[in-house]
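Appendix B, Record 12. Input sequence as logged:
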Amino acid sequence: MRIVFAGTPSVAVPSLRALHAAGHEIAAVVTRPDAPLGRKRVLTPSPVAAAAAELDLPVIRAVRLDADATERIAALEPELAVVVAYGGLVREPLLSLPAHGWINLHFSLLPRWRGAAPVQRALMAGDRVTGAAVFRLVPELDAGDVFGELRYDVPEDATAGEVLDALAESGASLLADVVADIAAGTAVAVAQEGEPTHAAKLTIEDGLLDWAAPAERVLARFRGVTPEPGAHTTLDGARVKILAARRAESAEPLAPGRVAPAAGAVLVGTGTEPILVERVQPAGKAAMAAADWARGTRGAPVFDVGASEGGQ
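Logged structural output:
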């Protein structure tokens, strides 16, 4: 089948590779333009652009799927268009251009967590089961009929980055199966059922940990915002990134935000039991073991207690 593939981050790469390996003709890969990365702000191709180059596939770089991108895609006469985390909306007339329309691999069990950050919001809400779905794109956000889905039991300490990596691999297989069914004329899509929830894009403010909240909620937020946009707290108004944290075993209670030494780490008090913080990065410094950071502070540090503005 002649396909146009749209995607940008690393989680879209397994899907591109799976469709290429299945023998489909990838007419073009649409991705976001090269972006400045690192301290030197070097222009760097997106992970999907890099994979397309490796596979010797033509690339269309587009900030958005505007009239120019639509014209370029139309000239390719695709039978099907596939999008995996491209980072932009598909609107008419582009939406109806391919003979088989557009399909999307989305990392949630729709209609739960429609939107830009489904895995992150699922973990922040404490969901123990999530998954992936392949659905037909329609004008309404993530509301199209579903061709197939898979369920994923979230490991207790998994971060959003780890869950996304797992779903990117299993989701790629699901997507390849759906595309094969569409090519064979056997694909069946069913309407979504249930009450939709919205997975709004995360901001830096979503990463602020509220030490007055119960430990389960603190850890859920930490896992949901790791690695991006990143969990953080403040000490006397200065930001401290929390890079590794987990449940503490049999720890004595601590006041919310209070830091106490532990074996190779530190305990931090919450609204219930403390949690174990293993790695931090103070503002303007390199990442370090939390125990080393604590030894370098004066007295017994107490993180500022503030509610996150991002909600659940």
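The mean pLDDT is 94.
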